Amino acid sequence: MNVVEEIRKAAYQIDPIYTQRWSPRSFQDKEIPDDVLRSLFEAARWAPSAANVQPWRFVFARTAEDRERFHAFIDESNVVWCQKAPVLVAVISKTDEERFNGANPTHAFDTGAAWGYLALEATRKGLIAHGMGGFDRQKAKEVLGIPENYFVNVIVAIGYQGEIELLDEAYRDREKPSDRKPQESFVFEGLFDEE
């Protein structure tokens, strides 16, 4: 039994892809073939969205120059480990929609579904995808040329998992999959009942 199976045990029968997906920080120095990378975005393409608006947008960086551009707005504590990732992706959502007469109230929800599809496809392809919220959103918009009516939700580091020894020592203790809260803490029947 590997460390993921020791820590992550589903309470009900589900496909193992859900428990196998987690967010390591250690990356190998290995490029992702273009067809494999594009397959992640293809999976995201098929996510559900309200009124089929598909508000998600992705800007990815795989050249050294483009990754350096991303490092300019990512928090230093994240750059320490994500600088070794061969691909960085900004996950963006369009906040307005003509069909909704203004704001799109589900832009982040729908884009989250697309990110979930991308993350699961990455796991299926033997990759890791680590989403991070530690970055300057306004600076990201400026650096990447993103218009005001778009929101930068997260930055994702994607690549092949590396050995723990490749990580800065400060991050090694955290390089393990996490468990999840039990359903009873977030699923309620009939009425909301969080104590």
UniProtKB/TrEMBL annotation:
Claim: Transmembrane is one of the keywords in the record: no
Pfam families in UniProt: Nitroreductase
Domain of life: Bacteria
Keyword vocabulary terms for this entry: Oxidoreductase
Domain annotation Nitroreductase: ranges: 19-74, 82-160
Record's keyword annotation contains Mitochondrion: no
Family: Belongs to the nitroreductase family.
Protein name: Nitroreductase family protein
The organism of origin for this protein: Tigheibacillus jepli
